């Protein structure tokens, strides 16, 4: 039995895809092992969202080659799409599969290992995937690629144009996930709300169809652009569906000047309106508050102290999210933002990141306190951390309790 190790960097989409590769290789009789122990073959699913991600990908590939010098290394993911040549030159790398080649990965690697030249490739345009590593929650990939062109982002080049699986296939995969005993699905994509470009369907019809799947009790949307989260959709979610009061929405900047330069498709007023619409529709006395996780980039070119403070104050005084995912701006070659002369010094970026992270800590604590005394349902997960197990409420508050295997995958009422 050949030993294979999987290494995943980056986003939930990569985790879902790796999980699908893993299922395919296990079906072929491979044994999955931790990479640190060495293997007969390695599969690295890379990320390229920042310069640091590229470096991390290169470092791990070199490390794997040191651990098992004879093992072929298969590299895929966004970095593989953007820097194929650079990766091919790293010692130990046998295959590099970019975005369009994902469905060829398993047959071609198997053919190589079996020394079989007859296996055809076949270019799929959408590589369907879902993760099942956690026994309680699965990341289901419904969409890939992006047709937007934000000034700082290389993801459209790395992942290609917006495309999706048909609603019927997404429902079928949700049923498979339910059959495996998993109760919660997180819908993932690069620009998830843009679902439907390939099939002429739309995201709203997708979520309505998924809501009908028996055995799945809870859904989250991993991230959705604010302009694609419509009032019609919010009204429907608020009407008592399986979609939880948890929204992850990229803001990126709370300054209209910076948003415009980033090429984002909304301004601060529209963003604030969307958040307050959701709060008005979903937050009722005695009911859990809505968890908002908001992405923000600190130090975009041309972001002066004044513009940064607009972002900071917009988050602190207007949006007041439960959590801020803060990213220092990373200069990605080939993007309009990278060509700008008015780059922000690293030391200034670091200070702005720190300020936003501190603000996030304060907002998160305030969010949890505001939910105190409210009844919520928690889905407990399988990990045993020093004798404790954890689960999340519908509005994404992490709850710990002493480890009890009988509780894994159970939805329990708690008072926060
Ligand atoms: S919406 Fe903008 S930031 Fe998000 S993947 Fe598309 S181009 Fe990149």
Can you put this structure into words, describing what you see?
With 416 residues, the protein is α/β, with parallel strands linked by helices. The chain is built from 13 helices and 18 strands. Strands 6-7-10-11-12-13-14 form a seven-stranded mixed sheet, with helices on both faces. The protein has a five-stranded parallel sheet with strand order 2-1-3-4-5, with helices on both faces. Helix 7 (167-179) packs parallel to helix 8 (203-211) and helix 9 (231-238) runs parallel beside helix 11 (268-282). The longest helix has 25 residues, at 346-370. The chain binds iron/sulfur cluster. Iron/sulfur cluster (SF4) is lined by residues 146, 148-150, 153, 155-156, 190-191, 225.
Classified by CATH, the class of the largest domain is Alpha Beta
Report the CATH topology name of the largest domain.
Transcription Regulator spoIIAA
Range of strand content: 15-25%
Shape, principal axes of CA atoms? globular
The neighbouring-strand order within the major sheet is: 6-7-10-11-12-13-14
Named once each, the bound ligands are: iron/sulfur cluster
Helix amount:
25-40%
Give the oligomeric state of the chains in this entry, treating copies of one chain as homo and distinct chains as hetero: single chain
Structural class, by secondary structure, is alpha/beta
CATH architecture of the largest domain: 2-Layer Sandwich
Number of strands: 18
Report low-confidence residues grouped into runs of 5 or more: 116-124
Largest sheet: 7 strands, mixed
- Mind telling me the C-alpha Rg? 22 Å
Instruction: Please state the average pLDDT score.
Output: 92
Count of DSSP H/I helices: 13
Number of domains: 4
Distance between the termini: 48 Å
